[in-house]
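C-alpha cells as discussed.
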C-alpha cells in the first residue's frame, strides 16, 4: 500500500523536550495530590517514601519549569490569537462533531488558549513553589505569605491538571495528532484538514526548497 505523504511537525529535540516536561508533570501531579489530600497520601510513595517525595518534588518542579520555558520560547510566536481563531472558538458545536472551522495556522484557538493557560500556571507554580520551599526560601517570608503561596500553588496546580486532561484528550481524539509528538510527522491530509494555513505555508516552503535545489543542480 502506498504511504501517504508526510509533513514534519516537530524535530527530535522538540519531542524530547515535550516528553521530559510531560514526565515531570505526571510525577509532580501524583506527588502533589499526595501532599494535598489525606486520602491520596499513599501517592507520595511514587518516589519511594513520603520524605523522599517532599525532597524531590520541588527539584522536579524546577526541571519542568525550565523544560516548559524552552517550549515557551519555541512556540510563543505561533500562539497569538487572530480573527480565524475567534471563528474557531465560536464554533464549538461543529468542532466537537468532528468538523473544522476557519483558516487555522500551526495551532487552533483551543490550543492557543491552552498554551497561555499552561504559561500562566507555570509562572504561578514556580513563584508560589519557591516561597513555600521550606529548605531554602520560606525563611525569608512571613507566615501569611507562605500560606497565600500554598493556596496559589494548589489552585494553579488544579487548573494545570484540568488543562492537561483536556490537552491529552484532544491529542488522542484528533486522529493522527499523537504521531506528531511521537514520530514528529503528520499526514498531509491531517494538516490540510486541521491546520490549512500551516499546510499551505509548509508546502510553499517545500516547493521553494525544491526549486532552489533544481537551480543549484543546473548551475
Ligand atoms: C502527559 C501527556 C501529554 C500528551 C499525550 C501530550 C500530547 C501532545 C501532542 C500530541 C502535541 C502536538 C499537538 C499538535 O501539534 O497539534 C502536544 C503539544 C504540546 N504540548 Fe503536550 N502532551 C502531554 C503533556 C503535556 C504537558 C504536561 C505540557 C506542559 C505543561 C505540554 C505542553 C505542550 C505544548 C506547549 C505543546 C505545543 C503545542 C501547543 O502550544 O499546544 N504537554 N502535546
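Sequence:
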Amino acid at each position: 500500500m502506498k504511504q501517504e505523504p508526510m509533513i514534519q511537525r516537530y524535530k527530535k529535540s522538540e519531542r524530547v523536550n515535550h516528553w521530559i516536561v510531560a514526565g515531570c508533570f505526571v510525577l509532580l501531579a501524583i506527588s502533589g495530590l499526595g501532599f494535598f489530600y489525606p486520602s491520596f497520601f499513599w501517592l507520595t510513595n511514587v518516589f519511594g517514601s513520603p520524605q523522599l517525595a517532599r525532597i524531590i518534588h520541588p527539584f522536579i518542579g524546577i526541571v519542568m519549569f525550565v523544560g516548559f520555558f524552552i517550549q515557551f520560547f519555541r512556540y510563543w510566536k505561533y500562539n497569538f490569537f487572530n480573527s480565524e481563531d475567534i471563528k474557531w472558538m465560536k464554533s464549538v458545536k461543529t468542532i466537537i462533531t468532528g468538523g473544522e472551522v476557519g483558516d487555522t495556522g500551526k495551532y487552533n484557538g483551543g490550543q492557543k488558549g491552552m498554551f497561555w493557560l499552561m504559561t500562566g500556571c507555570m509562572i504561578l507554580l514556580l513563584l508560589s513553589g519557591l516561597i513555600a520551599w521550606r529548605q531554602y526560601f520560606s525563611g525569608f517570608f512571613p507566615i501569611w505569605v507562605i500560606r497565600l503561596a500554598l493556596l496559589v500553588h494548589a489552585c494553579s496546580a488544579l487548573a494545570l491538571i484540568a488543562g492537561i486532561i483536556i490537552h491529552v484528550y484532544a491529542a488522542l481524539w484528533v486522529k493522527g495528532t499523537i504521531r506528531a509528538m511521537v514520530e514528529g510527522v503528520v499526514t498531509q491530509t491531517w494538516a490540510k484538514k486541521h491546520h490549512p494555513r500551516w499546510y499551505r505555508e509548509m508546502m510553499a516552503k517545500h516547493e521553494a526548497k525544491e526549486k532552489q535545489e533544481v537551480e543549484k543542480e543546473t548551475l
